[in-house]
Specification:
Order of helices and strands: EHEEHEHEHEHEHEEHEHEH
Number of domains: 2
Distance between the termini: 7 Å
Helix content: 25-40%
Largest sheet: 6 strands, mixed
Shape: elongated
Number of strands: 11
Strand content: 15-25%
Strand order of the largest sheet: 3-8-7-4-5-6
Length: 249
Amino acid sequence: MKVKKVLVSQPKPTSEKSPYYEIAEKYGVEIEFRPFIKVEGLSAKEFRQSRISIPDFTAIIFTARTAVDHFFRLCEEMRYAVPDTMKYFCTTEAIANYLQKYIVYRKRKIFFVNTGKLDDLLPYLLKHNKERYLYAVSNVHKEDLNILDHNNINYTKAVMYRTVSNDFGPDEPFDYDMLLFFSPSGIDSLLKNFPKFKQDEIKIGCFGTTTAQAVRNAGLRLDMEAPSVKAPSMTAALDLFLKEDAQNN
């Protein structure tokens, strides 16, 4: 069966130069963007139930821009003015730069790496081992915290937002030939929305090993996986898959 309609379980790209649009035109396929999951922030009341007091901390660890948004949102809701002395440790430069939305960047102590990995932040965390770290996360986070525990980093994990299923409406069509997923939560949402889902000829592609495992654990067939040597990104993998699909049909 030739793939004619693809569902990308992510928000629609903000740029018209997205590779997805080029792929759609190149192969004559329709690509729709529709997240299977969405993020909800905890209310100040819910956060207080964790008995975590933000003023007790001298530094914050951020591994996502979403965490930045919800940290400052909660601080505003709780009427807490983040002091200029607060230190920020980020797993990418993009997250560090995003802090400018809330603080005067040049006046703050900000540390970052470019790998996106918590492990690579360790040298900075150890250098500032007197700090009391607040680690802002969602209720579903993939980072392995053993690296912090094994190195006696004084940190507290604080759930500030949650990932929930973005339910399909009863009249919302589901007529796709291919589904692309980026997290295990997306697979959970698929099965929640369609408990009697039968894959049949529908192709499934995913990004990341944990998402791939979630596909298999759900008893579904994985037709495309990224990243790989030939396809380091989801769009590169989709390009290759559609090329082969066109040749075989």
